[in-house]
Design a protein that fits this description.
Blueprint (H helix, E strand, L loop, with lengths): L12 E5 L5 H13 L15 E5 L10 H4 L1 E5 L6 E5 H7 L1 H10 L6 H7 L2 E3 L13 E2 L4
Parallel strand pairs: 1-2, 1-6, 2-5
Antiparallel strand pairs: 3-4
């Protein structure tokens, strides 16, 4: 008996429209597609997932009081270098980072996770430069 191990994982392209979808629900579906958990030959130690293009990131929705209550922090490493911003400010200035941050929180924090997150492409509007890859539409509703 030998264990089947996929030699060459197939990577498809998928496009997701984030209009009106809560951030967490979007991030779980995107992280699952990036890892390849929907595929028959899923292997946890390989990057066999799809490339995911998220469009209309500026039209994503926060539920409850998260728009003002959720705080993103980053630390420069220097004394007094703690910066914080609310979800409302982040959505206004950098809507792509909101989705990238949510998806990165659902991926493994190792070399494989860093390889997988590079397959995520997020755009604030509906225009993207990946039309040549002919991405399939991913339904979230």
């Amino acid at each position: 008996m030998s264990t089947y191990f996929p030699k060459e994982p197939t990577n498809d392209w998928v496009i997701v429209d984030a209009t009106g979808i809560p951030v967490g629900r979007l991030a779980t579906r995107v992280a699952s597609a990036l890892r390849g958990k929907h595929k028959v030959d899923f292997t946890p130690n390989q990057a066999g997932g799809d490339f995911v293009v998220v469009v209309n990131a500026s039209k994503v929705v926060f539920t409850g009081n998260k728009l003002d209550g959720k705080v993103y922090t980053r630390y420069s490493g220097y004394p007094g270098g703690l910066k914080s911003t609310t979800a409302r400010e982040m959505l206004d200035k950098h809507p792509e980072r909101v989705i990238e941050h949510a998806v990165w929180g659902m991926l493994p924090k190792n070399r494989l996770g860093r390889k997988i997150i590079r397959r995520l492409k997020v755009y604030a509007g509906d225009a993207h430069p990946h039309a040549a890859q002919q991405p399939a539409q991913m339904e979230l509703r």
